[in-house]
Design a protein that fits this description.
Elements: H1 11-18, E1 29-34, E2 39-42, H2 44-50, H3 71-79, E3 93-100, E4 103-113, E5 127-134, H4 136-184, H5 197-220, H6 224-230, H7 233-247, H8 249-252, H9 256-276, H10 284-327, E6 338-341, H11 342-352, H12 354-359, E7 363-366, E8 374-377, H13 379-395, E9 407-414, E10 418-427, H14 432-436, H15 461-471, E11 475-482, E12 500-509
Parallel strand pairs: 7-9
Antiparallel strand pairs: 1-2, 1-5, 3-4, 4-5, 6-8, 9-10, 10-12, 11-12
Helix pairs in contact: 4-10, 5-7, 5-10, 7-9, 9-10, 10-13, 11-13, 13-15
Length: 512
């Protein structure tokens, strides 16, 4: 390694003179090259990185390893530029892409002129020292992360668009179901939302009793020969088995959610048998009365199914809208923080869920309207958070004994420096272990009891609401206890089958 420049002294002595020989002992790749990039020195780590022989005279140029041929010239030009008086000797760090033996190598690269800090020594020998740290794995990982982030942004936008389109579709489905409900029960004159489930159930019982009577008359009508000519014996036997099923359908079908579909299946069997009858063998009036009774019951079951499906569609629409806002929160233009009243977002949230609460037959009771209590923050996010909590309360409510319809309550409590919004519902329990472990606030988590009666959900409502509360320097708490102050042991089998009083409270700082 006696590389010289125009008869200059050996490089090692030059480094000693400049007081920089210690650089070559650093545990990183070090090389020395001239302005053209010709290599004049490279330590062991540098030789290994570039695939050079471990010993011997160097030849070639550092430019041969740059993925961009003119990169070395750019680095030299910047490194040789003037520095401000008193500036430190450190030089800018670059991430440089090299190509070594057919593979890409990314390095943190430092390049600076070989200068002397001693007065009177040579200020510039036309040589540059480069330091390289291999960051290939980290760089590629960072590139992948950035690419993934770009993909996530695009996907987030696409999901937002898809959810928006689905929401529009659900609006169409909702209107179609409403039209179908009115066509099935025109005497309701469009007031299907106000129809009480108890009234519908009672009416369905009367219709079932009417069909039992008509079907009994048909089974007894005509002589055996005419009956045999009208239908095969196995069809008559099946119709006979349907009579006791219809007469006591509530006892025979203990799960209320299954009664509608079961009754519709029975009416379908009755009507199918009548359509299969050979004409002229059974009394027309008896058959006509049975058909009318079966069709009326079938129409009522279809009507109730339509209402239940419409309620599910409205619930899904609300859930999708909340999910869309949650997913796209990071890519929307940030809304400026502002000062607004708590009453304004409660009022807007109630209005937003009015159709859902009507369809679910749940009344929202706002106990105290503190119109002058104000908070400061992102109004859109806080509105979404309150709507999430109110939506959950409506969805998980049961009908209370002694009341015409289920109801939930909203109360506002003002403290010295904070305000709390409490939403209370009577119905589905939240297990104490889920609350204590914080599981209820986990992303995508749905409580063990939340699937009661097939209720839909995404498991993000409480997560989103808690994040919004925390972002506003507030908090979100939840409690759930037996509604009647039960003294039963939580370990008992039926403990969580009783109604629970669940309170969710969001506390926020008052606007100052």
């Amino acid at each position: 390694m006696d590389a010289t420049d125009n008869g200059r002294q050996p490089l090692e002595r030059l480094l000693d003179e400049l007081g920089t020989a210690w650089l070559m002992d650093l545990p990183m790749s070090i090389y020395v090259a001239d302005t053209e990039g010709n290599l004049v020195y490279c330590n062991a780590e540098g030789r290994a990185m570039l695939g050079l022989p471990e010993e011997g005279q160097l030849s070639g140029s550092i430019c041969d390893y740059h993925a961009e041929p003119h990169r070395h010239a750019e680095l030299v030009e910047r490194a040789a530029g003037p520095r401000e008086p008193g500036a430190r000797s450190a030089h800018p760090k670059d991430v440089v892409k090299l190509e070594v033996a057919g593979r890409d190598v990314f390095v943190e690269h430092y390049l600076g002129p070989l200068r002397s800090s001693a007065a009177g020594s040579a200020a510039d020998r036309g040589l540059y020292v480069g330091c390289m740290v291999d960051i290939t794995e980290d760089h590629i990982a960072a590139q992948r992360a950035e690419s993934l982030q770009d993909t996530v942004r695009e996907l987030t936008f696409d999901i937002g668009q898809i959810l928006h389109a689905n929401t529009a579709t659900l609006v169409m489905v909702n209107q179609t179901l409403l039209a179908a409900a009115r066509a099935l029960e025109p005497e309701l004159e469009g007031n299907d939302d106000a129809t009480r489930p108890e009234d519908l159930a009672a009416g369905m019982g009367q219709m079932a009793a009417r069909l039992v009577t008509a079907l009994g008359r048909m089974l007894e009508a005509g002589d055996p020969d005419r009956r045999a000519n009208a239908l095969p014996d196995d069809r008559w036997e099946k119709l006979e088995r349907l009579v006791p099923m219809l007469a006591n359908y509530e006892e025979n079908i203990p799960v209320p959610e299954m009664r509608i579909s079961a009754l519709r299946a029975i009416t379908s069997e009755v009507l199918g048998a009548i359509r299969a009858m050979e004409p002229g063998h059974m009394p027309k009036e008896v058959v006509r009365d049975t058909v009318r009774a079966a069709e009326d019951l079938e129409r009522r079951t279809c009507f109730m199914d339509t209402l239940a499906t419409r309620t599910a569609v409205i619930q899904m629409d609300t859930s999708l809208a909340a999910l869309r806002d949650f997913i796209t929160a990071e890519i929307r233009t940030d809304d400026p923080s502002q000062r607004f009243t708590v009453a304004s977002i409660i009022r807007e949230s109630i209005a937003h869920l009015a159709e859902f609460s009507r369809a679910a037959r749940v009344e929202v009771v706002w106990k105290n309207r503190s119109e002058d209590v104000e908070v400061f923050g992102n109004r859109r996010d806080l509105l979404r958070a309150i709507t999430n909590l109110l939506h959950n309360a409506i969805k998980y409510s049961w009908k209370r004994e002694g009341y015409d319809a289920p109801w939930i309550s909203i109360e506002v409590f003002e403290g010295e420096n904070e305000v709390s919004i409490q939403i209370e519902n009577w119905g589905v329990p939240v297990e104490q272990a889920e609350v204590e472990a914080g599981l209820v606030f986990g992303m995508g988590y749905r409580g063990k009891r939340s699937k009661d009666r097939g209720r839909l959900g995404t498991g993000i409502g409480l997560t989103d609401s808690q994040r919004v509360a925390n972002a506003h320097r507030g908090s979100l708490t939840i409690s759930s206890k037996p509604a009647r102050g039960s003294s039963r042991d939580p370990g008992e089998r039926d403990y969580y089958r009783q109604p629970f009083l669940t309170r969710v409270r969001m506390t926020l700082p008052l606007a100052v």
